[in-house]
Amino acid sequence: MSNNEIHDTTVRVMNTLGLTPDPWQIDVITGDHKRLLLNCSRQAGKTSVVAIMGLVEALTRPMTRILLLSRSLRQSREMFRLMTYYHQRLGSLSLERQTCEELELKNESRIVCMPCREDTIRGFAHVDLLVIDEAARVPDDLYRTVRPMMAVSDGRLIALSTPFGKRGWFHDAWARGGDDWARIQITAEQCPRITPKFLDQERRALGESWFRQEYFCSFETVEGVVYPDFARCVVPYLPSPSGRGAGGEGELVGGIDFGFRNPFAAVWGFLDNDDVLWLTGEHYARQRPLSYHVQHLPRKCTWYADPSGANEISELILGGFVVRRGINDRRTGIAAVSARLEDGRLKVLEGRCPNLLMEAGMYRWGESEDRRAEVPVDEHNHALAALRYLIATTDRHSLGRRRIDAAAHAKEMHKTPEQLAEEERNRRYWEMAESDDPRIWGVFG
Questions:
Q1: Listed range (149-153, 284-288, 420-424) with the worst mean pLDDT
Q2: Longest pairwise C-alpha distance within the chain
Q3: Helices (H), 134-233
Q4: Which of 59, 127, 128, 150 is deepest in the core (most CB within 10 A)?
Q5: 3-state DSSP call for residue 231?
Q6: How far is residue 363 CA from its own chain's centroid?
Q7: What percent of the chain lies above the pLDDT cut of 90?
Q8: In this model, does residue 242 exceed pLDDT 80?
């Protein structure tokens, strides 16, 4: 069938299923876009139109391979279930075989939903249509892994999502992807099925920032981010070689967070003469043994690692690495990282630690009771955990001291009484933490 015939068939199928397409959905169907970003409100109909498009293409073009990817296998299965539901309503046309994750047709077309795992995804090639659902939440490394699947087939890529902050590959493609991408944005006001009354209720319930993000396609800064100013520490180049570590002169230090299903994450860099930590490297990978990771870690480095990984630490030491147990108290680590961010003693070389920066934009405090207890959400914190182990351990004897030069003193004079009182409480806390009392030192492991 020609492209125009497939377009007409897709529209007829939507009408048959009782889903009269909106004008923008017609644009999606007839556009034949090689690379398409759908930045749409919740419940706008983006998943339905892409599901029907994929199903019709598989039915009308033999040997079509369609891959569905999302931030989790559960989410991938949601789109797959929608496609199989529509297929059943059409009479299960040309069905050869169906499982909970794959639909195979008699014309040798296949639709497969995949988990968000690099090792499993790498086995696929010759993909004709790659659909990435909830794309704003799919990690950058997974996105980079799936793109080569279309190299030989010259396949199409459709990424659909509501925004999730100003971070990640989806935001970068939307904001800076240029002519490589076609873009369609649909807000809740453009969807006739969403009423103004419902939107008023959602605005009151979610707050203005989340409301704009969920229903008006706005890339908002995530509320409650633990490190809201982290991006300010990114610099385009290292200091002059006169500073210790700037030209490779100083000791290399790093942090490691062990993981297998979750990413193994490591970050490293130098401390200069002014006690500024310059991060110059990162390793971040899933589903790989320790023998793989050691090939990507610099050996002339003092590592501060997750103390719960005793076996991994022992193996690294046997392999010739210098590894010390890092401080694993989360509040201590967050305070230590925040202290360096506040006084400018943490710098990240541009382009060297993309996953660390991605996590910093997403790591946030928990809701309601968790927020009062100062407990962050336990996700997007692997490279950040490696950084915590590094900074909390190297700075443990200086966290209660603050170096104040003339510029810092001038800045101090503009702080509110509440800010000064809070900093004084923090200072006293760290002085207690540095005491020899074992009851206090036990906090640090």
A1: 420-424
A2: 79
A3: 140-146, 168-176, 196-206, 208-215
A4: 127
A5: helix
A6: 9
A7: 58
A8: no
* CA-angle at 230, arms to 330 and 332, nearest 5°: 20
Buried b (16+ CB within 10 A) or exposed e, 260-286: eeebbbbbbbbbbeeebbbbbbbbbbb
Q: Residue 323: what residue type?
A: V
8 A C-beta contact, residue 43 and residue 194: yes
Mean pLDDT of 285-310: 95
168 contacts 187 by C-beta, under 8 angstroms:
no
Domains and CATH numbers, the chain: 3-215 (3.40.50.300), 230-399 (3.30.420.280), 406-445 (no CATH)
Distance CA(297)–CA(322), nearest Å, equals: 12
Return the pLDDT at 117.
67
DSSP state letters, 407-435 = HHHHHHTTS-HHHHHHHHHHHHHHHHHTS
Angle at 365 between CA 334 and CA 358, to 5 degrees: 75
Structure tokens at 255: 């942090």
Residues in Cβ contact with 363 at an 8 Å cutoff, skipping those fewer than 6 apart: 225, 226, 227, 376, 377, 379, 380, 381, 384
Residue 247 has pLDDT above 60, yes or no: no
> Please, are residues 35 and 182 in contact by the beta-carbon 8 Å criterion?
yes
| Distance from C-alpha of 326 to C-alpha of 306, rounded to nearest angstrom | 6
How far apart CA 129 and CA 323 sit, in angstroms, is: 45
Phi, then psi, of 323 in degrees rounded to 5: -130, 130
Residue 3 phi, psi (nearest 5): -60, -40
Structure-block tokens of residue 10? 């897709």
